[in-house]
Amino acid sequence: MQLNRKKVDLKSDSVIKLMILASQTATLLTQQICFAKYNYCILTSQLLEKDSNKGSKHVALNEKTS
Hints:
Blueprint: H1 13-65
């Protein structure tokens, strides 16, 4: 099976539009990855803060009872 290969004019409108679309898609994916990492960091810090608050409450209760 042979493929018919044609030379593509890299300056044609359709190729330029396709390259712009690919660039925009890559930018959006990068933004989504950064946003997901940011949300993960926020969630992780909130969970750590919640855990540390629980720990300090337990310590405070133990100190009062002793």
